[in-house]
Amino acid sequence: MVFPHRAPSGCSPPQQGQCPAGALSFGGPDERVEGPVPSWLEAVRGSPLVEELTLNPPEGIVAGPMNEENFFEWEALIMGPEDTCFEFGVFPAVLSFPLDYPLSPPKMRFTCEMFHPNIYPDGRVCISILHAPGDDPMGYESSAERWSPVQSVEKILLSVVSMLAEPNDESGANVDASKMWRDDREQFYKIAKQIVQKSLGL
């Protein structure tokens, strides 16, 4: 997928694996899957969902498969929500889909610097909708909040936008960010502003 503009300088762009002919990559640049293509993948190639997200995306989101040979890896740009400390930021991310999707959820990782209670220091996103049934790393989620096959990529991305706007400091994905959000909001806002500026190459 080619975005309407480049990923901002200061952020590492998503790593695109080089796929040999007839192969599809998933889960990272060093993994390959060959042979029959999963039925969900055949369906998604012509899916209205892909067209909707790429041609008429929700406000503040641009997303789609990296290329026609790699539907297991999507890239996205998330715009910082209005009236929040992340406003005006443009944050690149990668969605990695497992072979048994939609039975299992994709994984999402920001590929630029982020400082947020629900984002691990390496960029991985920790929200309920990305957790499989029975997977509750922080020990506070209800089963209804977690992944189910009826969820959509659009809902994941909208949930991430909401997460940026309203951090959940019960999540220990980034302990330092959680503590600062609770105890020193002014300093948190200052760091968030720096991250926004970096995302814009300022």
Explain what this protein looks like in three dimensions.
With 202 residues, the protein is an alpha+beta fold. It has five helices and six strands, in the order ββααββββααα. The protein has helices at 39-45, 48-55, 153-165, 175-183, 185-199, and strands at 23-24, 33-34, 61-67, 70-79, 90-96, 107-110. The chain has a four-stranded antiparallel sheet with strand order 3-4-5-6. A two-stranded antiparallel sheet has the order 1-2. A hairpin with a 2-residue loop joins strand 3 (61-67) and strand 4 (70-79). The longest helix has 15 residues, at 185-199. The protein is globular and about 45 Å long. Its EC number is 2.3.2.23.
Highlighted features:
202 residues, alpha+beta, two-stranded antiparallel ribbon, disordered N terminus
What summary fits the major beta sheet? 4 strands, antiparallel
Name the average pLDDT. Answer: 76
**Radius of gyration over all CA atoms, rounded:** 17 Å
Low-confidence stretches: 1-35
Taken as a percent bin, the fraction of beta residues is 15-25%
Pathway: Protein modification
InterPro entries: Ub_conjugating_enzyme (IPR050113), UBC (IPR000608), UBQ-conjugating_AS (IPR023313), UBQ-conjugating_enzyme/RWD (IPR016135)
Domain UBC core: 41-201
GO biological process, one term: ERAD pathway
